[in-house]
């Protein structure tokens, strides 16, 4: 093997390693849901929480409805990397409401991680939704 062939081989191996590292990073951050549609997330959250899709999309502000709506926006925005506008449009809200809802769910998750307290079963519902959608659990 010549020096030039060895350099080519090393460059080829480096490129393969970069591709593999990128693939692993992409898979571990949750980009593997090309087959899941936004409507599927709404269906799963509706089934898990027991709140109808109609209520999730409505203007109702009951705690259970708001929680289900926030879960939909969290899964779409954080876990599936949709924009806040697209996530909010699915539940008839604007992007600022999506940002607030995502932050609320993140707060529940943080409290669960720090104190092992699952207020209103948010983390349990989130885990169940992720499991049904075949998403690697975040909590």
**Strand content of the residues, in percent?**
under 5%
Residue-averaged pLDDT: 86
* Alpha-carbon distance between the two ends: 51 Å
Q: Give the overall shape.
A: elongated
The major sheet is characterized as: none
Whole-number radius of gyration? 20 Å
**Strand segment count:** 0
Total count of helical runs of at least 4 residues = 7
Topology order in helix (H) and strand (E) letters: HHHHHHH
Amount of helix = over 70%
List the SSEs and their pairings:
Layout (H helix, E strand, L loop, with lengths): L2 H27 L8 H12 L3 H5 L5 H17 L4 H7 L4 H21 L6 H11 L7
Short account of what is shown:
The chain has 139 residues and is mainly alpha-helical. Helices cover 72% and strands 0% of the residues. The mean pLDDT is 86.
Describe this structure in words.
- The protein is mostly helical and 139 residues long.
- It has helices spanning 3-29, 38-49, 53-57, 63-79, 84-90, 95-115, 122-132.
- The longest helix has 27 residues, at 3-29.
- The model has no long low-confidence stretch (mean pLDDT 86).
List keywords for this structure.
single chain, 139 residues, mainly alpha, 72% helix, elongated
